[in-house]
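This follows on from our talk about sequence and fold. Please put the record directly below this note.
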Amino acid sequence: MGEDASVNNYDIISIDDSASSNDDHSNSYRTNYFRNISLSYFAAQPTEMLSKHLEFKELCLESGNPEAHYIEGILQLFVKEDEQAGLYHLRQSSDGGYIDGTYLYGLSLLAVERFHKGQKYLDKLGWKENRSTSDQCWERVKKSLTDIPYFMNQGYYIARANLETLCGCRSRKRRGRVCNHGYYYERLNQFVEFAMSKNN
């Protein structure tokens, strides 16, 4: 109630009408359909695809749907606890242009102490010019992770402490702005605090 519309701006991706007017339902049309179909409902509730809609998810994954890779990344990383598979799918989501996938991939890399690469992906969101995109991504990612039971990993504490050590200036301002490392620490800290709250 009263939520910012930008947090819920999961728009349905329209499929080219010229492709649907053909009677040729070839494999390329099917692939295009499953690659471009919006999975916004499932992105907000990824556990729905864990078993109930498994075949649909698999078709979308096979077709390279970036939202499907985002959902699978969440399920692999936080439910099945398969870090390698989770990060793979989140990267596919990011490479497919899904900004929430980019945000969560960058954040997850920070959480496993791959700081340089995580920073690189978070920088793709242009936070230095305007933080609103990353703030909106964080709100949607939190919504996606709400259904996931406790997923706190001890390594996240260590990553947060190590990033804080690297960022001795996180509380100081540079020309009225938080330094770069302070931004990354702030994002990782938000994530760790959110994960810890899931245990309460």
